């Protein structure tokens, strides 16, 4: 079973899309131009500190707010490997799947983890932290299909006979 | 077995009875794309390899967040949008007519029972006429433009019943804020809200629109109101048998039912910086403010401007307060001129702006700085939404907002 390990950044409840990327930066041309402003209203220094392969652990309702798809794209562009939260907002959830950003729902990890800790994710089974296993669910089949195709764009290219 | 409204809409669309949790593919009746996301939709659409739109007449493109442009590169979005519309034969383009969610129902693009998606979270608004409408991202929008279809998970429904007569200074905004406070910001995530009861029946379509607009602030996938005679008049249509059937059945299965008495509602505000941090206005009285914003797809309609004008008639906005009024559409703007509402507001000292998203999305028209406080009638008070992250945003009804503008501090509407 696929597994990976990453260093943790801890965020709270209701991290909204205006925090992930404020509206004033949405008309910048590319995600790379925008990503330095990720999380800036809450933690202006965070975007510069995140390293490739890090993991965000958050409370409930992560990604609430607008439909801006730049939110998951920026998190992915910053190198974040996955977001583990108590729960996710629905538009953010769909946008993340469509862009190949892995999201994992886990109700208890957030209360027991601190920033800088390492966690290991064993896909569709559990998250390991400090010798303890936190169970996680498998993704529904239709979502796995999109992820396995490499995101929605690739799935549509296949449909149109391009790949 | 009975059905909820959302189950009836999906059954009608797919031809099969559904239950919560089912994953189904629906045929989309209409889509809306706004100016911020059109460049991304256009890129993804072409990257996906589509040659044509599934139905150009079902696609609506609306410029609102960036109109008129406030930053140097904003107009690029209009050029990209215009080129995309020309290339693929789209006729439904609005370049300066107002806010997307207002126009979708006002211009007749959405009918009761339709399934509609938009690249904006407040697409839930069209539930005010009994349509299933929800926000999506630009990648998903690009795939709908090519296929005309979209997968969805049939949501559970939370039923909200409100009976009785609202107190005089309470507006539908106070109801939806209270409900979001009770549900919390994630209380309706993945779920449909369904409204009923005599208070809802007696409410205007515009007031229902305010409530459907803010359903997303409790995480809801959609918010549904039963189409009635007022809906038919607003949509300039006659309801057919299917549309008339969009009532939650007695024996439908609901996740839960929330019951309210209209007489129990009071003016409330969402306090900085969470939409579910609801307090009675009476508890917040005396807090001094710097600005008031009356507008947005939540509360920028004629009845909202009229309510504000009634409060402000013959009075003056406090010296140190900027009152910014932004009608939701050109049609509303013109009606408000004709009825003398804008004159009343201007006489009281309001700054009246062009129709559009304006200050609500924090790009133009009244950006604030550290330590300042604003009472606003829009739908979000998130950190940094109207300027720096140290601006404090209080969300309220137009009546409350107008009263605060006169007093220069938070006060109860009278």
UniProtKB/TrEMBL annotation, chain A:
Reaction(s) catalysed (UniProt annotation): (2R,3S)-3-isopropylmalate = (2S)-2-isopropylmalate
Record GO biological process: L-leucine biosynthetic process
The protein's annotated pathway: Amino-acid biosynthesis; L-leucine biosynthesis; L-leucine from 3-methyl-2-oxobutanoate: step 2/4
UniProt keywords, alphabetically: Amino-acid biosynthesis, Branched-chain amino acid biosynthesis, Leucine biosynthesis, Lyase
EC code: 4.2.1.33
UniProt xrefs under SUPFAM superfamilies: LeuD/IlvD-like (SSF52016)
Keyword Lyase attributed: yes
GO MF term (any one): 3-isopropylmalate dehydratase activity
InterPro entries according to UniProt: Aconitase/3IPM_dehydase_swvl, AconitaseA/IPMdHydase_ssu_swvl, IPMI_Swivel, LeuD, LeuD_type2/HacB/DmdB
Residue span(s) of domain Aconitase A/isopropylmalate dehydratase small subunit swivel: 51-107
Entry function: Catalyzes the isomerization between 2-isopropylmalate and 3-isopropylmalate, via the formation of 2-isopropylmaleate.
Quaternary structure (record): Heterodimer of LeuC and LeuD.
Family the UniProt entry places it in: Belongs to the LeuD family. LeuD type 2 subfamily.
Protein name: 3-isopropylmalate dehydratase small subunit
Species annotation: Blautia massiliensis
UniProtKB/TrEMBL annotation, chain B:
Pfam families: Aconitase
Alphabetic keyword roster: 4Fe-4S, Amino-acid biosynthesis, Branched-chain amino acid biosynthesis, Iron, Iron-sulfur, Leucine biosynthesis, Lyase, Metal-binding
Annotated pathway: Amino-acid biosynthesis; L-leucine biosynthesis; L-leucine from 3-methyl-2-oxobutanoate: step 2/4
The protein's required cofactors: [4Fe-4S] cluster
Name of the featured protein: 3-isopropylmalate dehydratase large subunit
Protein task: Catalyzes the isomerization between 2-isopropylmalate and 3-isopropylmalate, via the formation of 2-isopropylmaleate.
Gene name per UniProt: leuC
Stored Gene3D superfamilies: Aconitase, domain 3
Domain of life: Bacteria
PROSITE patterns xref list: ACONITASE_1 (PS00450)
NCBIfam families for the chain: hacA_fam (TIGR01343), IPMI_arch (TIGR02086), PRK00402.1 (NF001614)
